[in-house]
Write a structure and sequence with these properties.
Elements (H helix, E strand, L loop, with lengths): L4 E6 L7 H14 L3 E5 L2 H7 L4 E3 L27 H13 L4 E6 L1 H23 L5 H6 L4 E6 L15 H22 L2 E6 L6 H10 L3 E3 L10 H14 L5 E6 L12 H12 L3 E5 L11 H20 L7 E6 L2 E6 H16 L3 H8 L1 H13 L15 E7 L6 H14 L3 E5 L2 H7 L2 E4 L26 H11 L4 E6 L1 H12 L11 E5 L15 H18 L5 E7 L6 H10 L3 E3 L7 H16 L4 E7 L8 H10 L6 E6 L11 H22 L6 E7 L2 E6 L3 H4 E2 L4 E2 L8 H8 L12
Parallel strand pairs: 1-2, 1-4, 4-5, 5-10, 6-8, 6-9, 7-8, 12-13, 12-15, 15-16, 16-21, 17-19, 17-20, 18-19
Antiparallel strand pairs: 2-3, 10-11, 13-14, 21-22, 23-24
Helix pairs in contact: 1-10, 2-3, 3-4, 4-11, 6-7, 7-13, 7-22, 10-19, 11-12, 12-13, 14-22, 15-16, 18-19, 19-24
The structure holds adenosine-5'-diphosphate (ADP).
């Protein structure tokens, strides 16, 4: 049987992360022995043929992971919308014996692909009739297999939690709004910020949540009042009166009122200027949202989806429904393509017909839940407590090393708790402060500005209570009449919470609900695929490695980059995947001398064949003897003068920095659920202890007594780590020389 031939194209609006997907499709196909083509300039290139359709090799997609946009170009094609155009496109594919397609684009591009697939047999018949191809050729390519990847910064596709590019766009938007917030606060000024999203409010909603903006306008859920403008002004004024110095309104392009009339940013600006009696500035973010280097998440999403796309398209049988690659709760999966496109269209239709409840319902429960949480957080003051309600006294604390996003979680918890009519207490400096009784009451404004701040405003420590500490903690609980504890932190915090839980028999004061929220850059906590802070740290590492790689251009150099993680290799592996490192050293796998010999040989071979840069990423605890220093010394000694070796130890920058949009959003979502849990459990005679997390199916909670069976205590990490499965993809992408060619850049 002839080898399979597959083509990949990017179509519609460009999105950061498309390059990672193209690279991944090309390399996975080559690894599977499939001939692979790239179709340049989207469907237009398919219609034009010629050198718009080019065979790719391993090197053709080298060095593109960190580039924004799409190197194979994208276009909108009117020709492809016509039957004649599609027949010409079919001829161009058949001439090259291509009958499998991976399309990376939005719902328009995927609809076009589906139509093309449906028409394929009749297009071939027409080509046979006109004598352009033979019947035998038509027979041997009777079906077109397609698979779709969604590249769209708007995150507007039904059926997937994220589209390729949306996370990067959110990075651009939050950076911009954080910057605007600081100037707005300096001048006590109001700003209107317009972000992309004609039919989808995802970017506006999440940006408002991530930055602590005060008002948000999204297409799916217009303000329900006729005089929404007055409501908005009143809210901003209340915020100022409560002590806020900045007022920011975030609006999606497709913002409208409840009658469907579009709301323009200049209208909002003018209205605010009149009513607030001050200057109001508008920033329309425009195309910067599309541009720039893709975030770590988008690179890895593109890579993992591209891999899955090739697996899926090669396995497709003629009768199978075409699939789209999706991510659900952090796991890559496949979903029926046209059903997702139709539901996406249904949302747009619901918005057009002013059926906003339906539009929100179709967006899914997590979107709706986030919207509700946002409405609480944006308030300038909490709702007054219900008459006769006995307020609970709920305490919040941070534990372990600081993780970006801790403050975001504290802010959300404090505000949501206050809004439900409860008293919120902050415990300073983790268990150390708990033992010493450092507890203070928090109010609405004490967490103002915390959504976007790195570090730990409450203070944190690694202390784990033992012995007489329990007595002191029980005293603190009684003295401050604490009815529930939210612990936001890392491994030591989880251990401390577990201790309190099992000491309940000895200390009745501990018979209150306790919940842990995972916050650690190491991502080494049980019951959650991701902990808060890990995404920020990963982006910090990826940005640093990008710079290191740039600095090395035109020299033959190998870098060994050491990253944090303690004995958990998550950061090392995911940073390796996002930067195209050829080797990743993990504690989970250990380091063996014979493997180092192979690594050195590969390096030498690579540099002999023109490689300019080598990149190895080593987890800080990968091996006690083969330290970063020792690895560098071995590589250098064995380099035969072919290349130099340098080490880069990234250190504590990885724990710092303002939280990434994902960490802010996830911190807020977790915190909202945790407060609900504490309130519910505080009423129970046997309150539970739990830890929250994100798993394949979404947000989950486990009981604290599951900790011992879920963690590997000696190595301080979960016994089962989902990301270990990703190692295969990382190895595939960076393997040396498949197809006989030598990689000079990753
Ligand atoms: P997106 O994929 O980002 O939604 P568009 O809707 O502009 O972007 O679609 C990109 C291209 O896909 C179009 O220019 C056209 O070539 C093709 N396309 C879109 N819809 C169809 C369709 N119904 N039939 C055929 N081709 C289509």
């Amino acid at each position: 049987m002839a080898t399979k031939r597959l083509a990949v194209l990017t179509s519609g609006g460009d999105a950061p992360g498309m390059n990672a997907a193209v690279r991944s499709v090309v390399r996975t196909a080559l690894d599977r022995g499939v001939t692979v083509y790239a179709i340049y300039e989207g469907y237009q290139g398919m219609v034009e043929g010629g050198d718009r359709i080019r065979e790719m090799n391993w090197d053709s997609v080298g060095g593109i992971l960190g580039l924004g946009g799409t190197i194979i170009g994208t276009a909108r094609s009117d020709d492809f919308r016509t039957h004649d155009g599609r027949r010409t496109a079919a001829k161009n594919l058949i001439d090259r014996e291509i009958d499998s397609l991976v399309i990376i684009g939005g719902d328009g591009s995927l609809t076009g692909a589906n139509l093309f697939r449906q028409e394929w047999p009749s297009l071939l018949s027409e080509l046979v009739e006109s004598g352009a191809i033979t019947q035998a050729t038509a027979d041997s390519h009777g079906n077109l297999a397609i698979v779709g990847l969604v590249g769209s910064i708007d995150n507007d596709m039904y059926g997937t939690n994220m589209t390729i590019g949306a996370d990067t766009a959110l990075h651009r938007i939050t950076e911009a709004i954080d910057a605007i917030a600081s100037t707005a606060a300096s001048h006590q000024r109001a700003f209107v910020v317009k972000v992309m999203g004609r039919n989808c409010g995802y970017l506006a909603l999440m940006a408002a949540l991530a930055t602590g903006a005060e008002w948000v306008l999204i297409p799916e859920n217009p303000p329900p009042w006729d005089n929404w403008e007055d409501k908005m002004v009143a809210d901003l004024q209340r915020g100022r009166a409560a002590g806020r110095r900045d007022s920011i309104v975030v609006m999606a392009e497709g913002a409208r009122d409840k009658h469907g009339n579009p709301i323009g940013s200049s209208y909002v600006q003018k209205f605010l200027e009149e009513k607030l009696g001050e200057e109001v500035r508008t920033t329309v973010l425009g195309h910067v949202q599309r541009g720039g280097a893709p975030s770590a998440f988008d690179r890895n999403l593109g890579t993992m989806m591209g891999y899955q796309a090739v697996e899926t398209v090669l396995a497709a049988r003629p009768a199978d429904e075409p699939q789209m690659i999706a991510i659900r709760g952090n796991r890559i999966t496949t979903v029926p393509l046209m059903a997702c496109v139709e539901q996406t269209r249904a949302i747009a239709k619901a918005i057009d017909e002013h059926e906003y409840d339906r539009a929100m319902e179709l967006r899914g429960s997590s979107f709706t839940e986030t919207y509700r949480t946002l409405r609480t957080l944006l308030r300038s003051l909490p709702h007054p407590a219900a008459p006769g309600q006995k307020p609970l006294r709920l305490a919040v604390m941070n534990c372990g090393a600081p993780a970006p996003g801790m403050n975001t979680a504290v802010r959300a918890a404090v505000r949501i708790g206050l809004d439900r009519g409860h008293v919120m207490l902050g415990i300073a400096n983790g268990f150390k402060g708990f033992i010493e009784g450092e507890v203070h009451e928090m109010n609405w404004m004490s967490v103002s500005g915390w959504a976007s701040k790195g570090g730990s405003g409450l203070g944190t420590s690694r202390e784990i209570p033992s012995g007489r500490d329990f007595y002191a903690i029980a005293r603190t609980i009684e003295k401050h009449d604490i009815h529930g504890i939210l612990l936001i932190g890392g491994f030591s915090g989880y251990q401390g919470a577990h201790h309190l839980f099992i000491e309940r028999e000895n200390y009745p004061a501990f018979n209150i609900p306790i919940i842990c929220l995972p916050a650690s850059i190491n991502n080494n906590l049980p019951g959650s695929d991701l902990s808060i802070g890990a995404d920020t740290a990963l982006n910090t590492i990826v940005e640093a490695v990008d710079k290191v790689k740039q600095a090395a251009v035109a020299q033959r150099r190998c870098y060994v980059v050491e990253v944090m993680g303690r004995r958990c290799g998550y950061l090392a592996l995911m940073a390796g995947l996002a930067t195209g490192a050829e080797r990743v050293y993990l504690h989970e796998e250990g380091v063996r001398l014979h493997e180092l010999v192979t690594d050195v040989e590969q390096l030498r071979l690579g540099f002999e064949h023109g490689k300019r840069l080598g990149l190895m990423i080593r987890n800080e605890d990968a091996h006690p003897v083969y330290s970063t220093n020792v690895l560098c010394a071995i590589f250098e000694a064995e380099s035969n003068g072919l290349f130099e070796v340098r080490q880069t130890i990234l250190g504590h920058v990885q724990q710092g920095g303002d939280p990434s949009p994902f960490d802010r959003i996830q911190a807020t979502r977790f915190a909202a659920r945790c407060v609900d849990f504490l309130i519910e459990q505080a009423q129970s005679p046997e309150p539970q202890g739990a830890f929250i997390g994100l798993e394949a199916g979404g947000i989950v909670m486990h009981s604290l007594d599951e900790i011992p069976k879920m963690v590997d205590r000696d190595n301080q990490r979960p016994k089962v780590q989902w990301w270990m499965d990703v190692r295969g993809i990382a190895k595939l992408m960076s393997q040396p020389m498949p197809g006989g060619s030598m990689t000079s850049e990753k």
